[in-house]
Design brief:
The complex is a heterodimer of chains A (142) and B (543). Chain A is α/β, with parallel strands linked by helices. Chain A has a single domain (5-141), classed as Rossmann fold, CATH 3.40.50. Chain A has 4 helices and 6 strands, in the order ββββαβαβαα. Chain A has a 6-stranded mixed β-sheet with strand order 1-6-5-4-3-2, with helices on one face. The N and C termini of chain A lie far apart (50 Å). Chain B folds into 4 domains: 6-109, Sulfite Reductase Hemoprotein, domain 2, CATH 3.90.480.20; 127-289, 2-Layer Sandwich (Sulfite Reductase Hemoprotein, domain 1), CATH 3.30.413; 311-393, no CATH class; 408-542, Sulfite Reductase Hemoprotein, domain 1 (2-Layer Sandwich), CATH 3.30.413.10. Helix content of chain B is 36%, strand content 17%. Chain B has 17 helices and 20 strands. Chain B has helices at residues 6-27, 33-41, 65-78, 101-109, 143-153, 226-240, 251-258, 260-274, 283-292, 311-320, 348-361, 384-393, 424-434, 438-441, 500-517, 525-532, 535-542; strands spanning 45-47, 52-56, 62-63, 82-85, 91-96, 127-128, 168-171, 185-191, 197-203, 215-222, 321-323, 329-334, 345-347, 366-368, 374-380, 408-409, 446-449, 463-470, 473-480, 492-493. In chain B, the strands form 4 sheets. In chain B, strands 1-2-5-4-13 form a 5-stranded antiparallel β-sheet. In chain B, strands 3-14-15-12-11 form a 5-stranded antiparallel β-sheet. In chain B, β18 and β19 form a beta hairpin. Chain B is globular and about 60 Å long. Classes of the chains: A alpha/beta (142), B alpha+beta (543). Chains A and B meet through α1, α2 and α4 of A and α1, α2, α6 and α9 of B. Bound molecules: protoporphyrin IX containing FE (HEM) and iron/sulfur cluster.
């Protein structure tokens, strides 16, 4: 594994992430496998500080829904994408609610920055704070 | 027609810059082909048997003359002077060079076009009715709803790594020209008792190796909420669709395994959670988009009666035009199926001519049909003769719409890496053989695929042909009785397969038997088949 690429400024929460099956109330870090139901964590979001979500294959996409569900439920801690991930997926990941990535191959921060700045606006609301283009259009007409 | 504003343009321009960056990194070997493959696929670039193939999106099948001229330019500048219109209302170019792709995409962006999501496990090009805004039978133009879906699905953060590709079709009419029952999601505009427009939602249709017809999971969805409802469907699918086997990964398998009622329940449950998140744009956004699709100003006094003394012209008018909402107008279909030619192919010169005709006679609009033809939606009947003469001189006046030689065919083994057999030569041979008697046969839809993936819609063919591999030899199965229209059914295999000459002969035997069986000359092949069943045809073919 390469280094973790983080978009948060708070200190890294380094506790090992337990698998969901071993997780007990009060634990601060947990790991969701791709097929785990993120909604099971909703009662624990107040105590959790980091949730890792596994991407065992490039084609894997369930983690995007898991992250969004956790953000919709109000989770503000770190959500870390772990596995087969490339810099070109960063925009999808951050918009779905991830704010850290632990990829198998390292992410070049310069390329990452360029990638994240690429699209000036977005068409749909998601887990980040970006306003969709329809809202911007609405405002410019108001 | 929809026009980009600065927001739309900026996204497409950014996409070009992004792909330029990615191609450069690939050419410098900074990324592996393995990492690059999904990136190029998200831009519609496949590696085929002989070269790269690019699929350009034609959202809901609508282009204007400027865009059609650009498609011609791309055919000349980057390909060998041709483009291939597909059953998903897109266009494909078969001879692409990787290093030229960024410039090509920049050319497309200059006319508000792109190749976003024309491949990969994401929400693909939204398809629609090629007669939108012109057909007398529609409730409303479906394209504004399709355009809003296009925007919503473009670079969707949650739904760009679905279990499998995802295809949505929208129609505004009960006459189904968009095959909505054969899509992952089919949407039909409907009205409630108060006369308000809503959407009927079908889920779980598809072709491929396990063909299925979609199920209605909601009879009436208010348009104000339809994007959040789509989010709910896609989320249930993204989380629960199978990922262990790509042949079982389409939403149809999930819907079938859960049952449509249980799937619908899960969607409603998810929808209740996501609807309050404010995912739906205000009605003004749909209204803004709809304003772009206002039809051209039509002349209420345009004459209806026209001189049809030229018999070839009169025949073309009968076969290739449909009634328009406005009496003095017609909807013209330009056949890309001249017998012996490659179905769906158009040369750059032909594209330019069609662009000129659209500008001069058709409100500057052209539509691509899922049957791989082109449509000029708003033509004054009084202009039909002049238009037809230009088509004749361009080799585009074939009068065979929905007839035996109007064959859908996938690229097959001539281009496709997944193919088991050639499909284009079968379509060509059949078209040449059947054209002389097609007037007598009436509506007859023949569809050819080169493998089980079914890109040629063979499951929906009145007569379907499927190429398979039989001990290393090309072999063709014959299917009968399919339909992709409002009376959708899936075709059934008749019996053992044939070689290339055998399949052509078998189709001829089926047709000869139909002629003796039909109740009257107006009974379509499909209706005869439905009435008498497969047995008489089996007997005709296998003796
Ligand atoms: C030449 C490169 C192509 C490749 C590699 C390819 C690949 C595939 C595959 C793998 C499937 C099966 C998907 C599934 O069942 O999950 C499929 C289905 C399909 N493709 Fe293609 N295809 C190609 C060209 C085309 C063309 C040229 C068209 C249009 C003429 C087309 C339209 C379709 C349609 C309509 C389906 C079936 C509908 C459905 O998705 O259920 N494809 N394609
Ligand atoms: S049906 Fe098969 S052969 Fe034809 S284009 Fe699709 S994948 Fe290729």
């Amino acid at each position: 594994m390469a280094e973790v690429y983080r978009l948060r400024s708070d200190p890294e929460h380094t506790a090992p992430a337990l698998p969901l099956a071993e997780y007990q109330s009060g634990g601060t870090a947990v790991r969701l496998e791709a097929g785990d139901d993120a909604r099971l964590l909703v009662p624990h979001l107040g105590t959790l500080r980091r949730i890792d979500i596994a991407f065992p294959k490039f084609r894997e996409g369930r983690g995007y829904s898991s992250a969004r569900i956790l953000r919709e439920a109000g989770f503000t801690g770190e959500i870390r994408a772990v596995g087969v991930l490339y810099v070109d997926q960063l925009m999808f990941l951050t918009r779905a609610g991830f704010d850290a990535v632990l990829p198998e191959t390292p992410i070049d921060p310069a390329v990452a920055e360029r990638t994240l700045a690429r699209f000036p606006n977005v068409y749909m609301k998601a887990a980040d704070s970006l306003q969709p283009i329809w809202a911007l259009r609405e405002q410019s007409n108001a | 027609m929809y026009r980009y504003d600065e927001y739309d343009q900026a996204i497409v321009d950014a996409r070009v810059a992004e792909f330029r960056d990615q191609v450069e990194r690939r050419l410098k070997n900074e990324i592996s082909e393995e990492a690059f493959k999904p990136l190029r696929l998200m831009n519609g670039l496949y590696l085929q048997l002989h070269a790269y193939m690019l699929r350009v999106a034609i959202p809901y099948g609508t282009v204007d003359s400027r865009q059609m001229r650009m498609l011609a330019h791309i055919a000349r500048r980057y390909d060998r002077g041709y483009g291939h219109f597909t059953t998903r209302q897109n266009i494909q170019y078969n001879w692409m060079k990787l290093e030229e792709m960024p410039d090509l995409l920049a050319d497309l962006a200059s006319v508000e076009m792109h190749a976003f999501q024309t491949s990969g496990n994401c929400i693909r090009n939204i398809s629609s009715d090629q007669f939108a805004a012109a057909a007398a039978d529609e409730i409303a133009d479906p394209r504004p709803y399709a355009e809003l879906l296009r925007q919503w699905s473009t670079l969707h953060p949650e739904f760009s790594f679905l279990p499998r590709k995802f295809k949505i079709a929208v129609t505004g009419s009960t006459i189904d020209r968009a095959a909505i029952k054969l899509h992952d999601i089919g949407l039909e505009l409907v009205q409630n008792d108060a006369g308000e427009i809503g959407l009927k939602v079908l889920v779980g249709g598809g072709m491929g190796r396990t063909p299925m017809l979609g199920h209605v999971i909601r009879k009436y969805l208010p348009v104000a909420d339809y994007l959040s409802y789509m989010e709910a469907i896609l989320r249930v699918y993204n989380r629960h669709g199978r990922r262990d086997n790509i042949y079982k990964a389409r939403i149809k398998i999930l819907v079938n395994d859960l049952g449509a009622a249980e799937f619908a329940r899960q969607v409603e449950e998810e929808w209740a959670l996501v609807k309050p998140l404010g995912l739906d744009p205000p009605p003004s956004e749909l209204a803004r988009i709809a304003a772009h699709f206002a039809p051209p100003v039509l002349d209420a006094n345009a004459p209806v009666e026209i001189d049809q003394s030229n018999p070839d012209f009169a025949n073309w008018v009968t076969v290739n035009t449909h009634p328009h909402k406005a009496p003095g107008y017609a909807i013209v279909t330009i056949s890309l199926k001249a017998p012996g030619e490659i179905p769906g192919d158009a040369s750059a010169d032909q594209m330019d001519i069609i662009a000129d005709l659209a500008q001069r006679y058709a409100g500057d609009e052209i539509r691509v049909t899922h049957a791989q033809n082109l449509v000029l939606p708003h033509v004054r009947r009084a202009d039909l003769f002049d238009l037809w003469q230009v088509l004749v001189s361009a080799g585009l006046a074939t009068a065979n719409l929905d007839r035996a030689s109007d064959i859908i065919s996938c690229p097959g083994l001539d281009y496709c890496t997944l193919a088991n057999a050639r499909s284009i030569p079968i379509a060509q041979k059949l078209a040449v053989k059947l054209a002389p008697q097609e007037a007598d046969l009436g509506e007859l839809k023949i569809k050819v695929s080169g493998c089980i993936n079914g890109c040629g819609h063979h499951h929906a063919g009145h007569i379907g042909i499927l190429g398979v591999d039989r001990k290393g030899e090309e072999n063709y199965q014959l299917l009968l009785g399919g339909s992709g229209a409002e009376d959708a059914t899936l075709a059934k295999i008749l019996g053992p397969g044939f070689d290339e000459n055998g399949i052509v002969a078998a189709v001829e035997k089926v047709i000869d038997r139909y002629k003796t069986l039909r109740a009257d000359p107006a009974e379509r092949f499909l209706d005869t088949y439905r009435r008498v069943g497969a047995e008489p045809f089996k007997e005709a073919v296998y003796g």
